[in-house]
Amino acid sequence: MNATSRSTPDVVVVGARCAGAATAMLLARAGLRVLAVDRGSYGSDTLSTHALMRAGVLQLKRWGLLETLEQAGTPTVRRTAFHYGEEEIGVDIEPRDGIEGLYAPRRTVLDALLVDAARDAGVEVRYGVRCSGLLREGDRVSGVVLQDRDGIETRVDARIVIGADGIRSTVARLVEACLLYTSD
Prior knowledge:
Blueprint: E1 2-4, E2 11-14, H1 18-29, E3 34-38, H2 54-62, H3 66-71, E4 79-84, E5 87-92, H4 107-120, E6 124-127, E7 129-137, E8 140-148, E9 153-157, E10 160-163, H5 170-174
Parallel strand pairs: 1-9, 2-3, 2-10, 3-6
Antiparallel strand pairs: 4-5, 7-8, 8-9
Helix pairs in contact: 1-4
């Protein structure tokens, strides 16, 4: 059974974890109508964590989200160590730019924080939905085909489609994006 979306978003973001939720939030804050979809469920864990360096922590502060991250119990990292064989070099994280230290939140905390901020900005977020295809007008992507857990497909037109769906991105595969490898 095919269904058509009731409202047409300006942007569909495929993937509603840290990258997709942050992108969706910023686009909505800029005044765009945004739909973010994710095949997982809200707050689900993943085998990843993010050690946020100063630039990432500054972004959370600029977006008004750092205090919420701290209130969620994420400890401030004020010292780190680098290991080179048997040698360990300790490095103090000095407060700078209004940032007391660095953070390494669990993904259950970071992803939920960002998706909540996206919703607060007006993003419609749908979980349990995967991108099963792309709509096209000539060579241009003009929307997505979404499939829920019951196999029901929905076509959603959008001016912009963003693939933030990870290393095995369905969107990248469907547009036949090339992989670039560099060696330094």
